[in-house]
Predict the 3D structure of the following.
Amino acid sequence: MDYKDLRELMVRTQLIPRGIRDKRVLDAMERIPRHLFVDRTTIADAYSDMALPIGEGQTISQPYMVAVMTELLELRGSEKVLEVGTGSGYQSAVLAELARDVYTIERFASLGELAKIRFQDLSFTNIHSRIGDGTLGWLEEAPFDRIIITAGAPEIPEPLIAQLADGGIIVIPVGGLYSQQLLKTRKKGDNLIKEYHTLCVFVPLIGRYGWKRE
Ligand code: SAM
């Protein structure tokens, strides 16, 4: 089986049966070469139903979790998206297929720089990356139509709420250090409309408005 077949199998056996319906999300995940975002030592498992280690104690998320979070963002193609937690860059690439521009922040320089090389190699011109504490957001580029945090947080970091456009959506795993629940929040004027989704396990969001240490 080649990688294209493995991607098709991933979509058909891991995403569709678990309820992912957004055709644009399914198509994007069938296109993006996930095997180019994982470490060479784990390439055989690139399309398996699991998260994989990417160095610095961090992980590339399970395909299903990438799909759920992306679907919850309700992307139509014109959005400016902020991602906190670049990691391997895989989620950024999926977002970049579905939105206008993606701004992504990673706290580990080694991971952020490797992801940047991948974006260049794959000719993504709408992904903008930086190294730093993503809990502070990216003030110069705010407001964002959508914000996705791909690490587990005690609550939504305040600066990210402030940097979300009116009508915008934040998707974030919130809860304890070892297990969380996906929270989708829509900003309507001064109100935040919250919806809780699946339980999940993410590495911690470490920063000024996240956990203070691992
Ligand atoms: N989206 C990633 C992917 O597709 O590979 C998965 C990311 S991994 C589950 C979470 C990432 O968040 C890690 O790389 C971690 O270093 C990063 N992270 C944690 N706290 C952060 C912070 N305050 N700012 C930016 N990145 C952070």
